Amino acid sequence: MTAIILIEPQMGENIGATARSMLNFGLTDLRIVNPRDGWPNPKAVDMAKGAKEVIHNARIFSSLSEAAYDIHKIYATTARPRDMVKPVLSPEECGNAIHSNIRKGEKSAIMFGPERCGLDNDDITLAAAITIIPVSEIYPSLNIAQAVSVMSYEYFKAGLKAENDITDQKKSNAASAEDIANFFQHLEEELDNKDFFRVADKRPRMVRNIRNIFMRADLTDQDVRTLRGIIGSLVKKKFDKSV
Amino acid sequence: MTAIILIEPQMGENIGATARSMLNFGLTDLRIVNPRDGWPNPKAVDMAKGAKEVIHNARIFSSLSEAAYDIHKIYATTARPRDMVKPVLSPEECGNAIHSNIRKGEKSAIMFGPERCGLDNDDITLAAAITIIPVSEIYPSLNIAQAVSVMSYEYFKAGLKAENDITDQKKSNAASAEDIANFFQHLEEELDNKDFFRVADKRPRMVRNIRNIFMRADLTDQDVRTLRGIIGSLVKKKFDKSV
Fold first, then answer.
1. Would you call B19 an interface residue with chain A, using a CB distance cutoff of 8 Å?
2. Which residues are CB-contacts of A46 (< 8 A; sequence separation ≥ 6)?
3. Which of A7, A40, B213, B233 is most buried, by the most CB atoms less than 10 A from its CB?
4. Three-class DSSP labels, A37-48
5. pLDDT band at B189 (very low <50, low <70, confident <90, very high)
6. Chain B CB contacts of A217 below 8 Å
7. What is the pTM of this model?
8. Among positive and negative, which fits the CA dihedral A208, A214, A215, A216?
9. Nearest chain B CA: its distance from A13 CA (Å)
10. pLDDT, tens only, A228-241
11. Shortest Cα distance from B224 to chain A (angstroms)?
12. Is the Cβ–Cβ distance between B150 and A149 less than 8 Å?
């Protein structure tokens, strides 16, 4: 469902290696805008090895807007942030964003520019976000097929993570938003009873800080029961051993 | 400091592309055990592009144990888990493990087998752990230079993360272990006062569960002060508005 778009790629070998990397990580929808050496390209077929089907099914377009006709979100892979008001994502964040789009029924594409000069600003304008692969300053020039590998790898990894998250949640019984809201209400009522917040002006910020501590703990059902038990216990009158 | 070891690589092009990927992600120490086509290899030099220095400085060995003479931990990249009692790490975990080794003053190498057959069991025996790049079942055959890219990328990313973690900790003032221990003692004393644990047998497990909830929240100094304030407030006698 997720597409790779190459803008004006120059070397057939790179297109073939791109297809191979794509299929390694489960991607099959290759779209090419104005390949320099025309199409079909025997070098691309040769370099694709076991991913020749990706090359045979690749579609050629004459502009990005045509290539992205059914795409909701385009992610532009660039070497550095451009002077544009666009969110900048790491490859990992980009992989997660694409899977979050998939859950919303939206189709994404990861876009790569020509080997020598990268994407031009007109094409980047159409992107939802920019994504930058972190590279060493010593030699930042990443081969396009290697860039496709890294992006496709993070896309595939995010898919595995999305599956695991669903399984984990089932396993661990993550607390529902309602249970958590009730826990916060319980805690904050008891704190109000004891005049914990003192200054009314500061209450909203203090409440937010306290909620954030517990939100970071990824509470389960059982955690919420435990925490509510703790509150109930702490506010009791002192335990009387003689009773 | 971290090395890449190629065992019996076949294609000079793959060695060159490996060097390029290495340098993209800040790695320069290439060691090769028995390259099939001998050494030096002009195809390797050609494919290395801007990373020719890595090829010129590569060292050739006749066995893994010679190549790893100064290495503390070898990570074996394989396509599937082998029938061996070895930890299996994701590329991300491997990157983190290497940086954790670096902090301990230990030197690591990531090892890759020949293109066609992968690493043999004798070489894997010398590894501290196996690492497996997640790939699609449709076409799991990853080119060796792409595998080096993914592993080197995760290594580089883990390095950036390690730097950020240090900065984050400075910024956020993570609570010290002592402060956290004092907070737990405070909470557990108050809970004992209120007979929260009731059954003595169950106390250790209940204490562990409660501590785990808070450990997951990555508490800062300020969080610990807030939580201790909450405990102090909850155990107070009911607030008397007339006072």
1. no
2. A13, A16
3. A7
4. CCCCCHHHHHHC
5. very high
6. 213-214, 216-217
7. 0.72
8. positive
9. 12
10. 999 999 998 865 55
11. 10
12. yes
